[in-house]
Amino acid sequence: MSGSTTYDTPEAAMRTALPVDAGRDLLDRPSASFLAGDNIAPRESINPQLQSSMNTSGNFPSDTSNTSRSELHGYPEKIPVKTPGKRRTLLLILFGISIVIVVVLLVVLPVYFIVIKPKLHQNSQADSIPAPASITTPASDNGPNTNVPNSLPTTGGDGSTITKDDGSTFTYKNAFGGFWVSDPSDPFNNNARPNSWTPPLNQSWTWGKDRVYGVNLGGLFVLEPFIVPALFQKYPEAVDEWTLSTLMRADTANGGINQLEDHYNTFITEEDIAEIAGAGLNWIRLPVPFWAIETWPGEPFLAQTSWKYIERLLGWCRKYGLRVMLDLHTIPGSQNGYNHSGKLGRPNFLNGVMGIANAQRALEYIRVFTEFITQNQYKDVVPAFGIVNEALLSTIGRSQLTSFYLQAHTMIRGITGVGKGNGPYISIHDGFSGLSSWEGFLAGSDRIILDTHPYFAFDGSPALSPIDTGTGDNAGGDWPTNACNRWAAGFNESRSNFGVTVAGEFSNGINDCGLFLKGTSGASVSYGGNCDDWQDSSKWSDGTKAGLLKFAMASMDAFGDWFFWTWKIGNSTAGIVESPLWSYQLGLQNGWIPIDPRTALGTCASLGVSGPEFNGNFQSWQTGGLGAGTIAPSSTSSFPWPPATISNAGAAGSQLPTYTPTGTVVTLAPPTLTASATASIDVGNGWFDSQDASGAPTPVAGCTYPDSWNAIDVAVPPVCS
Q: E strands within 500-573?
């Protein structure tokens, strides 16, 4: 079971920072490790007389009245006197030396404490890293706000004050040794870390040793009715983002489509990201839509607007040391027909007459995102990229989906290069076919993650087994044991047989109750009881909360590496969260999510669940080492691109409509910094590989195409090229 793997297991039930995982010395050496041996005094012993010139806000001794200037600089207080004539000369020389020393200190100390020391995260001290004292540097006008003070702290830990872009403040709470870093003069600084057991962004993440404790930011850039119910309650005819966008565009009196931008700007704030770091988490899975890049005629989505908010969020994640798995959640034509794919209905990705053409567009958007996140400014913040969320394999077909995954892998590694450190891990979803069906997939590929979304809520069975069984050892009844039995063995076997495997989504949903959880149309639920009992958490007993906590911990332990779906559920028009089983934040606040996720380790073993173990070691090629990028021709010959056949198309793949690669490429814009900051800072241009110069897919002039979102079993147009 996951709890019995060779992952390091800290003491359970501790709510303060635990010792860092053994073996942290295997991390990459800090970028300034060549200074590790320098005997420089810690920040707490800085000369207090230099404090004002360093513009610091840390804690320093204040009483220096009994300390001579010579003692502060390490000199003896008395200098031997020889002759009066030489004394003046000697004094002048010493005075000159003192001036030089003071100047050096004034220059070197700020550089050391602001630039170098944050990079010297000594591995041997990682388990007890104190929050660094706040350091201030001159701040420039960063954007339109003019209320921000001229100088602000650039780093801090638990209890430090965060000043947001609008000048408002909040207090950072992190009891786990994490600290933030935000320096306008160094906007791509990756020194931050969310807690003591997670390597800072500027050090390597080691799969098999470091563990993913993550949350999704669902409903932020890809809207779902149950996550943002109030928006859908305002437009009762909306069933997905397609219809919601259409209705909003017609409602100009109430803000029109710009209501979505207001949502992007306010649903998740910097406080949320700080709170995620303070909750002992270390990763965020960020669903993004293709319309952050562009839309095509007839698509009602709000185009090219969410990107600046996505970029802002990546900046916040950098600030608090959180790694991001970017996830392309929507695909042209829909990859599964679910409401969170953009349009409810039938999938037209690799399915139907426009199946290949839609896949061409999908590859282009994967290309654009890859080019951006592979830039040096972002590769440490976004080390993983989910290329298609929940493709419906049962409709698309395994061979067709494999062909697409292989083509995407070839394209991505052509951009990034092959091997560790060259671009992100590529995350693929299991297509709801189960982990074991992907055993041996594309052996010799370069850094592929298998993502699965294990839910009890959607298995179609009643969920009447009691979870309120008291607050003692038997809390949760059968539910915690069921979680361990259902999932732990499969995850460990997949790590051994496939490679890196994660639960990209899971929740506390032991049933399918929740406002709009199964859509706005009032789809029937399989839960055999009264869903009203599960839609208002203020009515839950202590036993229910204890049972859900135990279930959450069992799930976390079974998965090993996980992302909870989702961080936040918005209030309904009733003013409450009506899908509380799906909100990590609400559970954290009210006791059914662990305060420290590490306390989940060992839960399955404590329940007597045993099974296959994972030894923590992946094959070298699976993590970008020896053999990566050497897929055998025998493994690829059966998966040509484009596929020879497409389901529900009525013709061979070679007869289906396609686009031509002669269109204009859309690139994602880099951040806009202030004039003073950009003088010596490379923000990138949104495109990592200058050799990647092919055009984007575009319709062939003079050709006719059916509706790309509704092309199942329609007539195939004449071949046109």
A: 501-503, 562-564
Token digits of residue 408: 């995407």
- Could you tell me if 83 and 77 are in contact, meaning their C-beta atoms sit under 8 angstroms apart? no
What pLDDT shows up at residue 116? 38
What dihedral do alpha carbons 705, 711, 716, 719 form, nearest 10°? Answer: 40
- 3-state class (DSSP) for residue 550: helix
Kindly name the residue from 270, 364, 371, 390 that is annotated as catalytic: 390
Distance CA 185, CA 515 (A): 46
Kindly state the tokens that stand for 688.
Answer: 């990592």
pLDDT in tens, 213-246: 999 999 999 999 999 999 999 999 999 999 999 9
What is the β-pairing status of strands 169-171 and 448-452? unpaired
Residue the block writes with tokens 């814009």: 669
Strand partners, 652: 645
Tell me whether residue 11 is one of the annotated catalytic residues.
no
Cα 47 to Cα 45: distance, rounded to the nearest angstrom: 6
In the residue annotation, 613 being an active-site residue is answered as no
Inter-residue contact 701 to 353 (CB < 8 Å): no
349, 710 Cβ separation under 8 angstroms? no
The owner of tokens 């839910």 is 455
Side-chain half-sphere exposure of 529, counting CA atoms within 13 A: 15
Rg (CA), the chain: 28
The angle at the Cα of 68, spanning 67 to 73, to the nearest 5 degrees, equals 100
**Residue 685: how many other CB atoms lie within 10 Å:** 14
The pair of three-digit structure tokens given for residue 365, joined into one six-digit string: 């958007």
Q: What is the pLDDT of residues 564-590, one digit of tens each?
A: 999 999 999 999 999 999 999 999 999
Q: Name the 3-class secondary structure at 663.
A: strand
What is the residue-wise DSSP string for 8-19? --PPTT--SPPP
| CA distance linking residue 704 with residue 687, whole number of Å | 32
CB atoms within 10 A of CB 84: 7
List 241, 275, 371, 505, catalytic entry: 505
Residue 464 tokens read as: 């009447």
The whole-angstrom separation of Cα 415 and Cα 635 is 22
Task: Report residue 353 as tokens.
Answer: 């007459």
Phi, psi for residue 154 in degrees, rounded to 5: -110, -5
On whether the CB atoms of residues 181 and 381 are closer than 8 A, the answer is no
Pick the closest to residue 441 from 233, 654, 635 (CA basis): 635
What φ, ψ does residue 557 adopt, rounded to 5°?
-70, -40
Q: Tell me the whole-structure pTM to 2 decimals.
A: 0.81
How many other C-beta atoms lie within 10 A of the C-beta of residue 168? 12
State the Cα–Cα distance between residues 551 and 476, nearest whole angstrom.
6
Burial code (b: 16+ CB inside 10 Å, e: under 16) for 436-447 equals eebeebbbebbb
* Contact status, residue 30 vs residue 36, Cβ threshold 8 Å: yes
Residue 287, preceding bond cis, omega within 30 degrees?
no
Rounded to 5°, the CA angle 486-487-489 comes to: 100
Indicate the angle between helix axes 307-320 and 270-278, nearest 10 degrees.
30
Measured CA to CA, the distance from residue 492 to residue 500 in angstroms comes to 10
Name the maximum alpha-carbon separation found in the chain.
109
Per the structure block, which two tokens stand in for 207? Answer: 């799969």
State how far the Cα of 115 lies from the Cα of 546, in Å rounded to an integer: 46
The structure tokens 């791509």 sit at: 188
- Residues 281 and 293: their CA atoms lie apart, in Å, by 29
What is the rounded distance in angstroms from the CA atom of residue 314 to the CA atom of residue 102? 40
* Low-confidence stretches of the chain (pLDDT beneath 70): 1-150, 674-679
